[in-house]
Amino acid sequence: MVMFVPLRDWKMVLHHTAAIWGSLNVIGRPVGMRFGNTWFLMELSTPFVHMRLILHTLGYRRSLLYKVNGVAMLVVFFLCRITTILVFVDVIPHMKTGELYKVGSGVLINMFVLTPIFYVMNIFWFIKICKGAYRVLYSPKMNTE
């Protein structure tokens, strides 16, 4: 990341620092595994995002492969990044008893600071993906000649 100029961005460094710190907290304390696994599920959509970027760069924006990959990216992104938000609904009963606060500050920061930030970003990107998918699939055909 340091060697590749386009990735030398403070947001990219912040993203990876937060992800590594969060992962280490969850790995070190087994109580956070349930929530930590949702972070790993988020990465299942990454190959589709990268494939879209590759196809776009190579000039295949109008190809069937680009459209199929876009739909797959939309579905996997929804299943792995949006539906996992519901996992946190199960925390509410434990918040009332106080037992949740015994897990340690690292896990609590993961659960109540980092994870909501990542989920807000995921919702933002999901809206953009939906708009892009609609535009690619339902916009009038452009003359490519």
What report would you give on this structure?
With 145 residues, the protein is an all-alpha fold. The chain has helices at 10-28, 33-42, 46-57, 64-82, 92-97, 105-138. It has one domain. Helix 4 (64-82) runs antiparallel to helix 6. The longest helix has 34 residues, at 105-138. The model has no long low-confidence stretch (mean pLDDT 83).
Topology:
Layout (H helix, E strand, L loop, with lengths): L9 H19 L4 H10 L3 H12 L6 H19 L9 H6 L7 H34 L7
In brief, what are we looking at here?
This protein has 145 residues and is an all-alpha fold. The protein is 69% helix and 0% strand.
Keywords:
145 residues; mainly alpha; 6 helices; elongated
Shape designation: elongated
The percentage helix is 55-70%
Our measurement of the CA-to-CA distance between the termini, rounded to an integer number of angstroms, reads 39 Å
Average residue-wise pLDDT: 83
Secondary structure class reads mainly alpha
Distinct helical segment count: 6
* Radius of gyration, CA atoms, in whole angstroms: 19 Å
Weakly predicted, low-confidence segments: none
Oligomer state of the chains in this structure? single chain
Write the element-wise H/E pattern from the N-terminal end onward: HHHHHH
Strand content: under 5%
How many separate domains make up the residues?
A: 1
Largest sheet: none
Count of extended strands: 0
